[in-house]
Amino acid sequence: TDGHQAILKLRTLVATHRDRTSAENLLHALAVQTDDLVCAPDGLARKPNPQMNQILIKRHELDPTNVIAIGDRTIDVKAAHAAGIEGILLSREQYPEMHTIKALRELQAYL
Description:
Blueprint: E1 13-16, H1 20-29, E2 36-39, H2 51-59, E3 68-71, H3 74-82, E4 86-90, E5 99-101
Parallel strand pairs: 1-2, 3-4, 4-5
């Protein structure tokens, strides 16, 4: 490199099938701070439809090639791929057709 370090700006954006109150309560219980939250029961299409991911990408003016979606269901990864973004499955089981991690600490390899 030329001595300059890339600055990585991470955002936590959540697209969920849960209703807003349930999602907010879960995130609070897990001490997860988010930058934005979209919920299917707010009138959005459920995954694997990419609509929730597309809304977050547009709202935050993101380049889809710089976005990684992490989900705990295979339809989360399918929705990510349908939105043109990288999808990673958080699972103890391996899925050969998907990038899979067993713990969030493994995510650093993708950044």
